[in-house]
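Hi R.,

Here's the chain you asked about this morning:
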Amino acid sequence: MYTQEMLDSIKNVERTRSERLHATLRRMEADEKDKLLQEYHPDYRTTGFKNILVGPNKGQKAPSELTDLLQAHSRLTGKHIDLEVVDYDVDVLIIGGGGAGSSAAIEADRAGAKVLQVTKLRMGDANTMMAEGGIQGADKENDSPAIHYLDALGGGHFSNRPELLSRLVHDGPLAIKWLSDLGVMFDKKPDGTMITTHGGGTSRKRMHAAADYSGAEIMRVVRDEVQNRGITTIDFAPAIELILDEEGKASGAVLMNFDTGEYSVVRAKTVIIATGGAGRLHYQGFPTSNHYGATADGLILGYRVGAELLYQDAIQYHPTGVAYPSQIFGALVTEKVRSLGAQLINRDGIAFMNPLETRDVAAASIIRECSTNKEGIPALDGGSAVWLDTPMIDDLHGEGTIEKGIPGMLRMYAKFGIDLRKQPILVYPTLHYQNGGLLIHPDGETTNVKNLFVAGEAVGGIHGKNRLMGNSLLDIIVFGRIAGKSAAARAKETTTGKLTLAHVEKFEKSLVDAGIETDKVSPLLLPTYTHGRTPRKS
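And here is the predicted structure, written out as tokens:
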């Protein structure tokens, strides 16, 4: 499957492997990391961003693709929706069918609320399903939430919101137990003790996994629990606009039927946004590991009713996305591959960084290696890549470790004639996670729109400006549960006033006042690939 040039380079990787097997690779100093990020990480480029001209974050920058959607016309502009004809009347409306939305639905239902969960595609079509490496939780004797806090704070460049990060790490062990009690099959030793491993930036082994299907296993269990509890769900019904009441409280949403294009009105006492990430916007032309529906819809919906964004310009590029073959270009190569011992190697067989640096540092290091064709291995569309030396794993831990620990990776590559037990694989950073999002209080409610709650990747501030591996699966559970409980409690004390979409007209006026002329509408809902696969910019 590999080209002759790639096979020649693999000889260099094999030549140096034995001396690298037990070598200790130096960690970068803080000043080295800062210089590297400034020079090579996409978040620090002067291009690729625009200033926001309207709304709560006016004057701040965001990725150009996101800014265009934040400043686009509503899908309901010029349309009349009769809000007195209510199709669904509930206590809690949850927008999103992934891990965060499902966790919220379970807890809201447990609290006695009447719940409706709607999703743009199908229940489980979410980044949760695609997460591989594991979920953090400080539940071992040599660990603690305080140590977890410090790891995540350093990984986030000390920009995490302390009150949000504190909830994340202190509820971490509870989240692991909650999932285990529901039936998640975490990896265990013969005596039943949960197996934990390191991730990039962790000082303790606190990564719990289910082979390399961790997200899929978690999604399987929470989705089943939603169904078993009889919670009403609607597939293929994206929310295209939030509804407020006359007091400005979040009070429902307008849904669109993907099959018929018809609209329906949901009245709700509280609303939870759990719509996930934005990878399918392909910021700066990067490929993505995200699912097809990850188009930042929740950020758009929340922003248009006045919810504030935080760190909307901070994006995570996972350092190891598939760079070859083309059929799986951009797909995720889980960090677990590196936590098991695989090293990042250039074309001459040299390990150029410690494999467990934080994700932003690792991504920037790879981009630096590939910024000149001297070190990068030519891959697709004129781009270049580096090797991830996967055969090291079985050499370090014994034959069968790859097959047992990362079976999904093994099968994914085997389809294209590559055996990662015997051959290294080509990787390059892929657009992976939206570090920024809607700003919330520790109870999950947005800071300036009452009765609007947010959970999961649509939240900003939990991880600061860079997220550590395993903290996203943790935050969808922790803050999904928090949002569900909080929204259900608030619903009990809420009386909904007259429904209104007046904010749509108000937002249109702000576009005119700012001199913005655009033919775009938002939320985008689905990406388009009419001009072929997105190009990659190194």
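One quick note: The longest strand covers residues 263-273.

Cheers,
M.
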